[in-house]
Automatic annotation (TrEMBL), chain A:
Positions in coiled-coil regions: none
Protein name: Vacuolar-sorting protein SNF8
Subunit structure: Component of the endosomal sorting complex required for transport II (ESCRT-II).
Gene symbol of the encoding locus: snf8
SUPFAM superfamilies: Winged helix' DNA-binding domain
Key words, A-Z: Coiled coil, Cytoplasm, Protein transport, Transport
GO cellular component, one term: ESCRT II complex
UniProt cross-references to Gene3D superfamilies, sorted A to Z: 6.10.140.180, Winged helix-like DNA-binding domain superfamily/Winged helix DNA-binding domain
UniProt-annotated location(s): Cytoplasm
Main location as per UniProt: cytoplasm
DNA damage in keyword set: no
Pfam families registered for this protein in UniProt: EAP30 (PF04157)
Main function: Component of the endosomal sorting complex required for transport II (ESCRT-II), which is required for multivesicular body (MVB) formation and sorting of endosomal cargo proteins into MVBs.
UniProtKB/TrEMBL annotation, chain B:
Name used for this protein in its record: Vacuolar protein-sorting-associated protein 36 isoform X1
Superkingdom per UniProt: Eukaryota
Organism: Danio rerio
Amino acid sequence: MHRRGVGAGAIAKKKLAEAKYKERGSVLAEDQIAQMSKQLDTFKTHLEEFASKHKQEIRKSSQFRVQFQEMCATIGVDPLASGKGFWPEMLGVGDFYYELGVQIIEVCLALKHRNGGLITLDELHHRVLKGRGKFAQDVSQDDLVRAIKKLKAMGNGFGMIPVGGTYLVQSVPAELNMDHTVVLQLAEKKGYVTVSEIRESLKWEKERACHVLDHLLKEGLAWLDSQAAGEPQYWLPALFSELLSQDVTPEEANQMTP
Amino acid sequence: MVVCEKNVLLLLFAKRKMDRFMWTNGLLEMNETLVIQQRGVRLYDGEDKAKLDVGGVVLSTHRLLWRDQKNHECCICIPLSQVIFFEEQAAGIGKSAKIVIHLHPAPENKEPGPYQHSKYSYIKLSFKEHGQIEFYRRLTEEMTQKRWENTPVSQPIPTGTGPKAGRTRAVGIVGIERKLEEKRKETDKNISEAFEDLSKLMEKAKEMVELSRSIANKIKDKQGDITEDETIRFKSYLLSMGIANPVTRETHGSGTQYHIQLAKQLGDMLQAPLEERGGMMALTEVYCLVNRARGMELLSPEDLVNACKIFESLKLPLRLRVFDSGVMVVQLQSHSEEEMIASALDNVSDKGSLTAEEFAKLLGLSVLLAKERLLLAEKMGHLCRDDSVEGLRFYPNLF
């Protein structure tokens, strides 16, 4: 009778087939790793070809760098993950961003006593460019943002807070929650904020406003001007230091457009 | 880039520029038409500010004129035929937008002007009251149309292509313009070609990513069927491509040869700096130190973190430590936790109380790390805090 197909024998056969498949499964993975090795070599050749033709582009054109980074992100590749990767080794894209990382850290460290570890992206950009000198490659704000994202791996609280149309770069592990961020955004227009302004715009109670402002004071992110006309003003050096930059020479000041 | 080519070309000429200007009464000649004028312009001789004040610049069909805003008698001009090439220079912080104009050397029969000699081969117009966009546009038009060639004016205006110009004859203004235009087109073409090649490259990279995902899935499903060796190889492939390991989510775990080597290098390199800094350094400090020393083939932040993570397993005398605040430091193994806390307590007791800044000064540490030590001592119950708007101050815990 045909029902023999579903007996003990059939089950045993099935088990054997499964075992064989399992065996094949592991062989397949091994094969794939070997295959990957070959494909990697091929890819390396293509990358070398690309580098020989276009390596300059990466260094010279920030537009090209943006495009490159976005494409990598789309396919799930991080060209900056390791200095030992193909991308940095052959395209030289690593050194550009890693060095930028060093410069960013140094600028933030140098200004920390003034602004508590908070700086606008504009000011950071300006100072990094200055530090690089006239003949260095151009650095865009996009480049800075990507370099900062990489720095996050080292702890130390590197982060970016959106304010107005730009960002504040945080370089200290000060805890800043939503309340603090909102007050920073409010202060962005004038560089300072008062308790009344917070209460008016955000509809908070006095305690909440004071609590947030006290925290900012403690972290060194805000300075108190208790002699201001009206009520005390809380100034954020990160936001106003660009306007009062001590690096503008009298000559340059004369040059500024009215 | 185009700039290099220009400089090479200009080296063939003499490098004298502001001396191309001539005094003029500022009146337009017959057949010469006004194109555009703009006030609030300062002249530069190359990179140096001209010894003239702010004035108004006038573009005519034949010349570029400049007149002092306060002293209208002071008016100088230069024929447009002297212009080889010009470009915009964007405004910066505290700096107005400019137009940079590169000029032929002064011909010998030139009329007198404000400068006898100039070491530069170009001048700049600095637009303090804006207007540079329109001015640039009109200048481009005039330089393209070259109306001065068709309508000669009664007053002799020296051109740059006279017989006395010497070597300039070999590379006439038209030839240079064409070459520069070609160079510009080629640069544009290079960029679009680069983008095309980039897309193709990315397609191939995408294949690698998909393959690696497939492998990772197989590894996940059949644990233990891949040899240790193969896993290590696979991880190194991911490292090369910058693909995040789909299994562990890290771009590469411990165990790649590169990081082992790196960790050992760091072990050697950081001994002395750590001793100097009280046995502890923030990871960002280490990053800067190491990369500045290397100069090239720099470490990525992730490389550094991953190397530091394996200090312990390699029996190196360094440790990576993460504080509650998220701050990451490298510390000497010899500087144990108890020692640090004891030292913090000693110092605070000695002075009665300390802030992080004061403690930092005492030990020669960074404020950040001084604070972390005080916080640690507090956590262990040896110190307590007084938190006010004047700052955070630590006292010995007497409870």
